[in-house]
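Worked example 3 (structure in, sequence out).
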């Protein structure tokens, strides 16, 4: 696979994810239930987020700040992180087509088929004003909830946390996404550990799509462990802080293509302002 075709495939994959996401927004579950099977496209492939490949079961008792975004009919489509009692940091590409009143934030529910925890309503969606597409950066969004949740919050990395972005730093990724590219979403919360990848390694795979000022990569050189579809918007955690928001990748868990995350410390000012608003 040469770099050119890889980039092309990445763009096409993203365009498809965007298109399918808009269909979902417009038609809701009817698309997943009826049109996708007819078209031969799995619901997981239509999912704009990523889920965890190579992960193991985890509990929101241990990771209380990890949440998922769902439609009002209960369809989980992205992850997020509780960063204040009534604020969730997620990916802009998760919320760009959303209307606040049609988004649920689910906290404290390991099993999507259960009714454990809390489903809060969203009253306001902030999307970074410079966001246009995942490969240009700015893939961050802050949701305001209709209530204060009781779950613990996770601190957001700042400029003072530069050390957490050093290649080799151990991170935790979490989500309810697919367990392989094009696979089925996970019923349960999954977690995995992956090291932060150096800028040169990430650029070697993604070329100019990887923008070190705006992004950070994490993954193993040989692949096998990664976020995947449906995990988007969820946390990349190191040193007890949120250092990244799951953003994009070429497939999932492939050698030479680590997962790409929004570099949270780059958006410190904007995020801080949103948390205060
Ligand atoms: C996605 O579709 C996605 N392997 C998120 C993360 C990754 C791939 C895809 C990283 O939202």
């Amino acid at each position: 696979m040469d770099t050119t075709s890889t980039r092309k495939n990445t763009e096409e994959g993203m365009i498809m994810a965007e298109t399918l996401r808009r269909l979902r927004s417009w038609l809701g579950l009817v698309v997943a239930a009826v049109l996708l099977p007819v078209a031969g496209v799995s619901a997981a492939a239509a999912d704009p987020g990523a889920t965890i490949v190579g992960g193991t079961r985890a509990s929101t008792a241990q990771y209380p700040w990890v949440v998922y975004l769902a439609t009002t009919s209960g369809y989980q489509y992205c992850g997020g992180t509780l960063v204040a009692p009534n604020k969730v940091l997620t990916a802009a590409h998760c919320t760009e087509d959303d209307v606040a009143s049609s988004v649920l934030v689910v906290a404290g529910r390991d099993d999507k088929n259960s009714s454990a925890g809390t489903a809060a309503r969203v009253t306001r969606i902030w999307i970074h004003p410079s966001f246009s597409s995942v490969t240009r950066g700015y893939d961050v969004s802050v949701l305001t909830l209709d209530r204060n949740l009781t779950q613990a919050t996770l601190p957001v990395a700042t400029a003072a946390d530069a050390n957490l972005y050093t290649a080799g730093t151990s991170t935790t990724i979490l989500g309810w996404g697919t367990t392989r590219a094009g696979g089925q979403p996970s019923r349960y919360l999954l977690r995995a550990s992956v090291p932060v990848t150096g800028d040169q390694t990430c650029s070697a795979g993604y070329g100019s799509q990887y923008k070190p000022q705006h992004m950070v990569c994490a993954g193993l050189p040989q692949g096998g462990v990664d976020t995947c579809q449906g995990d988007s918007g969820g946390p990349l955690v190191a040193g007890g802080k949120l250092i990244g928001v799951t953003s994009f990748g070429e497939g999932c868990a492939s050698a030479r293509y680590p997962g790409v995350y929004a570099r949270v410390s780059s958006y410190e000012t904007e995020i801080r302002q949103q948390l205060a608003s």
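Notes: The radius of gyration is 17 Å. The domain at 56-276 is CATH 2.40.10.10 (Thrombin, subunit H).
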